[in-house]
Design brief:
Blueprint lengths: L2 H4 L4 H8 L6 H19 L2 E4 L1 H16 L11 E5 L26 H8 L3 E6 L33 H9 L4 E6 L5 H7 L2 E4 L18 H6 L1 E6 L2 H11 L24 E4 L10 H16 L3 E4 L5 H19 L1 H7 L2 H13 L5 H24 L2 E5 L14 H10 L2 H9 L3 E11 L2 E11 L4 H15 L3 H10 L2
Parallel strand pairs: 2-3, 2-4, 7-8, 7-9
Antiparallel strand pairs: 1-3, 4-6, 5-6, 5-10, 9-11, 10-11
Helix pairs in contact: 3-4, 3-6, 6-7, 9-17, 10-17, 11-14, 11-16, 13-15
Protein name: Amidase
GO molecular function, one term: catalytic activity
Pfam family, one: Amidase
Amino acid sequence: MKNQEIWRLDASGLMALTRTGAVSAKEATTAALNRLEAVNPQLNAVVETLAETALNTAEALDQARANGAPCGPLHGVPVTIKVNVDQAGCATTNGVVALKNVIAPEDAPVVANLRKAGAVIIGRSNTSEFSFRADTDNPLYGRTHNPWGKHISAGGSSGGAGAAVMAGIGALAHGNDIGGSLRFPAAATGAVSLKPGLGRVPAWNPSQSAERGLLAQSMSVQGLLTRSARDLDLAMPAMIAGDMRDPLHSPLPWQGPPLEGPIRVAFSRETYGYDLHRDVDAALDAALDALRDAGYRVEEVETPSIFEAGRIGYRALMGEVKTLMGRDIKDMGSDTIRQIFDTYFQEFPPLCNSDLLRAMAERSRFMREWNVFLARYPLVLTPFMFKPFFAPDRDTNGRAGVQEVLGEAIYSYAVNFLGLPAACVPARLAQTEKGPQPINVQIIAQRWREDLAVAAAQAIEERLGQMCHPLWETMEAGK
């Protein structure tokens, strides 16, 4: 196979070749690095290229295979790592100029797990400043552009990861998510992602000087952005391997017990007073039809309130951020991020002191209500956003901008507060005046049943197609 074709393979397709030796790890890595060199200057998705170490790693994998060593589950698969996670010898900058010299002493658990599985790290992907925007731009590295066009934000905070994987820079892209930072970039680019539930993927940064707040610990998770849903099923078993450095990790298998069929899916168009755009409505209909065609039993029903859980959860998170991060944002942040946080605090008035404690106590009530509901309906199909994805810097346009970017993304951050898994998968390619634009939907699953969400995403994708193919046509046409 020619190098110029290898980068087009998803991780599953690539693994079928690297395991047999039809494609070497070095060939796969070289193809990804060549693609990076070709398209990254226009995207700024990868902000640190690790070509030399990547090729050395690939050569070592090839030699080990030649010597009879077994191949790992991600043998030779090129992957990018987000710059807010520790990778030994690299700067963990979090998109902040003042942190540009914070060099990681060792790998975070998620990086170690990917290495153990045989993945090859080819570069570090961009994030938003403090990893706390649904758009990706910062004074240290600049803006990441959406491969669909500069009129659409690349999403955030894992915007570099989403743009990279969808443009063909690596078959897998690491990211993380405290309120939507995996799913925003997926929705922006038509990638597929999974926000795992609390404790599924071990997390910890050896470079950190203090423990994160309790809500940050319980809402933030590590995950992947991929071009295909089947790649999540391939890669997540390696991602969830245990690490004693994370005391919240839950040592559960990836595949849960089979459910008696047909699996029931609750379907909700509830918008809590917001307008549902016709393209989002059409994407929901397409996903609904795909699931029914795949044998799922889809029922339109009323779910427990996601709005109340989301609003209280994000106000509580803002209270924790203001208390624990407020000084760092003021001292190390740009004027832009300080202004955005001021607007966040207006839109989501921070809960502090006893109000914060009460909100954290209420979290168990919301979780209980959803656990009971999900016992009857193991999956819930929802919008991810109520409108097609927004333009770059929309969140800098005062309260109206933050309302569109975050206020209407209630189905995103509510799931973080609940600690539930949720997949995000494209279900429609909308045709707009400025060009085609993907529309993603969300699939919430029972606690600990990420595998069910991914299986449903695969069912949708198998019937509606992958967004990378029309994207690459669009990118080629734009040359």
